[in-house]
Each structure stands twice: as structure tokens, then as C-alpha cells.
Amino acid sequence: MQITQSKQLFSRAQQRIPGGVNSPVRAFKSVNMTPLFITRAQGSKLYDADGNEFIDFVGSWGPMILGHAHTEVVRKLEETLLKGTSFGAPTEGEILLAEMICEAVPSVEMLRLVNSGSEAAMAVLRVARGYTGRDKIIKFEGCYHGSVDPLLVQAGSGAMTLGIPDSPGIPASFVEHTLQAKFNDLDSVIKLVEENSSKIAAVIIEPVAGNMGMIPPEHGFLQGLRDLCDREGILLIFDEVMSGFRVDYGGAQALFGVLPDMSIFGKITRANSTPWWFSTVAAITRLGSWRKSPRNFPRSSRSISRNPSAKAARSSRALRKPPRPRRCSPATWMPMAPRRPARFMNWRYAAPPVRRIA
Fold first, then answer.
1. Is the pLDDT assigned to residue 261 strictly greater than 70?
2. pLDDT tens digits for 54-96?
3. Three-state secondary structure readout of the chain
4. CATH class of segment(s) 97-307+331-349
5. C-alpha 304: how far from its chain's center?
6. Domain coordinates of the chain in residue numbers?
7. What is the pLDDT of residue 15?
8. What pLDDT is attached to residue 283?
9. For 152-191, b where at least 16 C-beta lie within 10 A, e where not — what string?
10. Could you read off the pLDDT of 221-249 as tens digits, one per residue?
11. Which segment of 13-22, 156-165, 318-327 scores lowest on mean pLDDT?
């Protein structure tokens, strides 16, 4: 395959862009290749600078679920662009989009639109800490939640209680309140909670792990987290940037029947655009008037979020719930992970069988 043009473009890029790419995942180092520079796309096909045609299995990491340059999405974008691209003021479109999300996801009551998954993760942590008055966060080994300093950590030599920066430039003090647990191991979470009584603000997790291979939750694990968080006054946060609107139209929380206190969504709903969102959800009703008061709500301002073109693309009819004969069942996922609840579940937080959806 001829990639002369891509090689030349990559050489130019390395002169001005660190590593020649704006995200490490695009560097192609894992496949020992020069990154391919794409010039256009249509439907399921990508075309690079050398004219090579590829079947696209990446989908821009999620949002292009309808295929590239989908007719209706392009039409909505064209209509909106003629009216202006960004106003720095509220629009009706953001209300429509918020209503669509609330209708789709069972736990969502309120939400705020942001520009990236990293922003969303920072915002939910700030909300959790502001509401609980606590500082510590539990995350899981192998789960990725964006370029957020306190969450870019790994466990050191099996140490579960000390966060170690996983990137140069992050001071150790930034991650001193980050605790690491093992995915699908409820006992490891219980141990951390017991060692840090009344100090943990939130547990954040990918309900279906997607950044260390596709790993579904073992039977009862998510429900065990829900019960533990309820008992200890800890907020449960689902990062559904990858699983939201994929494993089910209502996300993993709809598929497995376990509702978080807050959720993060993104990627798939970008629909050829950029903003993402985080959402405050149904189980967080105990916040009461706290969540609705700008004075109480932690600051999360941004200049360009909620731009009209992004909302128009995501609000197109093509992105609404598609008709299908039946919903996915947890049985689709659960056989992929051995059902050994006794191995990871503490009897005090034993969960009922996973609710199957017909």
C-alpha cells in the first residue's frame, strides 16, 4: 500500500506538533506504522492523502455511528450554520437536546453540556466533593476518565490506597485523594471505604470497562457498589462515555438496572460535532434545592459549550431511538464474565440477581 503522502505530512507535522499527532492514540505506534492522514470520508469508508480507501471500524472513536457525512446530519448542520455558529448565549436547541437525553436515560433529571469528557469528569468530581464535603475519590484500575490530573493514576506494586501519577507533570499532591480499587472486585472497594470512613466523596467507574479491553461487570458487582454507596453516603458516578447509547439506548445503567447518582456521556452523541456533557441524575434528588442554586453549584463555566451546530447535529431525527424488535438483555453480556459472586462480594452488600430485560 502506497502511503507516500501520509509520510510526508507526518514529517511536516512532527516539526510543529509534539509527536506529530494531537492525541497519542493516533500515533500508530502499536501497529508500527506511519499515521494515515485522512482527507475525506463517506458512509463507512475513509480515504487518505494517497487515495487509499479503508473500511472505517473506528468511527472517530464513537460519534460516527450513522456513518460519515450522513445526509440528515449534514442537512441540519447546513441549516444551522447559516444562522450562526456560536452566540455565547442560551438557545432553544440546548433545551431540546437536554430533554432528549432525559427521556433516553432512566436516571437523568438534569444535565449540563460541556466540551469534552475530561471537562465532564472534572465537573462531576467537583459536584461530588461540593455536595458531600469530602475529598477522596475511588476509581478503578484500567478505567480511563479523560485527562484529569487526579484521575491519571495507577496503583503502585499492588498498593490500593495510594494514587501514583501516571503522567509527567502531575504533582503527587494532586492525586493524594485518589484511591484505586480493582474492577469487578467489590471487596477491594469495601476495604478502601472501611479504611477511609466518612472521607470518600464518590466512586467513579466505567460500568462496562472499555479502556482495558471490553470487560463487562460481573454479576452483582454494580448493584453491590450501589448498595455500598447508599449505606456510606457516597455518590456513585457512571462514566458512560463509551457505553452510553451503545450497550443500550439508555446506557449500561438501563441494561443492568443499576442507577448512578451522576453520569458522564459523550462521543456517540457528538454526531459529527464536539461538545459532550455530564448529567445530574434521578438518584441525586437528595440534593434538593442545592443542585439548582448557582450559589451552591460548583463552578463549571466555559465559553464555547452548547454551540448551536453541535446541538443541531445531535438533535436530528436520525439520532433518535431506532425501532428494533427487542432490547438487548444482560444475558448478552453476563456470559462473558464468570458468575462467581461469592469471590468478590461481601455478604453485607449481597446483591439480588441481575434484572433481565425482555
1. yes
2. 999 988 888 888 899 999 989 988 998 899 988 889 989 888 8
3. CCCHHHHHHHHHHHHHCHHHCCCHHHCCHHHCCCCCCEEEEEECEEEECCCCEEECCCHHHCCCCCCECCHHHHHHHHHHHCCCCCCCCCCHHHHHHHHHHHHHCCCEEEEEEECCHHHHHHHHHHHHHHHHCCCEEEEECCCCCCCCHHHCEEECCCCCCCEEECCCCCCHHHHCCEEEECCCCHHHHHHHHHHCCCCEEEEEECCCECCCCCECCCCCHHHHHHHHHHHHCCEEEEECCCCECCCECCCHHHHHCCCCCEEEECHHHHCCCCCEEEEEEHHHHHHHHHHHCCCCCCCCCCCCCCCHHHHHHHCCHHHCCCCCCCCCCHHHCHHHCCCCHHHHCCHHHCCCCCCCCC
4. alpha beta
5. 20
6. 4-57, 97-307+331-349
7. 97
8. 34
9. bbebeeeebeebbbeeeebeeebbebbbbbbbbbbebbbb
10. 999 999 999 999 999 999 998 898 889 99
11. 156-165
Task: For residue 316, give the C-alpha cell.
Answer: 436530528
Calpha distance 190→167 (Å, rounded): 28
Which pLDDT belongs to residue 111? 86
Q: How many CA atoms lie within 13 A of 261 on its CB side?
A: 26
Catalytic residue numbers read 144, 239, 267
- Whether the CA torsion 55, 60, 208, 23 is positive or negative: it is positive
> Poorest-confidence range of 12-26, 63-77, 262-276, 340-354?
340-354
Whether 97 shows a pLDDT value over 80: the answer reads yes
